[in-house]
Amino acid sequence: MKRANIFWGSFLVLLGLLFFLQAQGIIANVFSFIFPLALILVGGWIILNVFWKPDLGDDETFSFALQSAKSVRYKFAHGAGQISIRGGAPAGKAIVGSSAVGMNTDSRMDGDRLNVNVEAGPSMIPFIGPSSGVWRYQLTGEVPVTLEVDAGASRLEIDLKDVLATRIELNTGASSTDLTVPARGASMLDVEAGAASVNIRVPESTAARIRVKDSVVSLDVDTNRFPQTDSGLYQSPNFDATPNRAEITLEAGLGSITVK
Known about the structure:
By secondary structure, the chain is of the alpha/beta class. Helix content is about 15%, strand content about 45%. It has helices at about 1-25, 35-50, and strands at about 60-65, 70-80, 80-85, 95-100, 105-110, 115-120, 135-140, 145-150, 155-160, 165-170, 175-180, 185-195, 195-200, 205-210, 220, 230, 235, 245-250, 255-260. The strands form two sheets. Strands 5-6-2-8-10-12-18-14-17-16 form a ten-stranded mixed sheet, with no helix packed on it. A nine-stranded mixed sheet has the order 1-4-7-3-9-11-13-19-15, with no helix packed on it. A hairpin with a 2-residue loop joins strand 16 and strand 17. The relative contact order is 0.13.
C-alpha cells in the first residue's frame, strides 16, 4: 500500500496548505480548490503507476490453511482490474493471495471440503487494491479443487497447469483472459464472456473436447490438435482414452476465442 500512502499523504499535506493560505488571507475559500486538487492528484497517481512498478513483495498477503480438507472449492468475485490466479501455494496452504483495502475473504470447512471465498474491488485506484496493481493468488496443488471466477472489465491470467482442478467456471464482462487448463486429471471448463478476448492453452500432454456455442463471433481452434468432428465440436483423437483431458464449453458475445 505504499503508493496509496503517498497519494493520501500528498492530499492531506496540500489540503492543509490550502487551509493555511486561507487563514493567512491569501485565498478566500479553500473549498473551491478541492476538486481541482483532487484531479491533479489522481492524474499524478496515474502517471506514477506508469513509471513506478513496485516489487511484488510490497503487497500485503493473506492465506488459509488446507487443514484436513480432501478438496477445495474456490469462489472469486472481482471488480475491474488485473487478476492472476495460478498454482504454487506452499505445502499445507489452500491459498496465498494479495490482501488490501476493499476485499473480503473467508474460509470454512463443509465436511471434508474447504470453501474459500474472495471478494475484491478494482485494483487500479488509489485507495483500493494491492500495491502492484494486480490481485495475485496461488492455489494448492495437493488436493482436487473446483474454481468459480466472476469478474468485471478485467485482465485475467489464470494458469491451472499445476492445479488439480476438476471444474472451472469463468464468467467475465468486457475482458481479456489467458487461461491454461490443468495438465493432470480430468477437468471441465465452462466459459461465459461478454465483449471479451479469451485465449485458452491446453498443455501438450492433455487432450480436449471443445464445444462452442453459436454466439461466438471469432473462433480460432488448433485443428491439428483438435480436429472438428461436428458443428461447433472439436476433439482430440485420443480424448476418451487418456486420463488427462479437458472438456471445454465456450460461449461469448462480441469477442474472440482462441484454443491452442
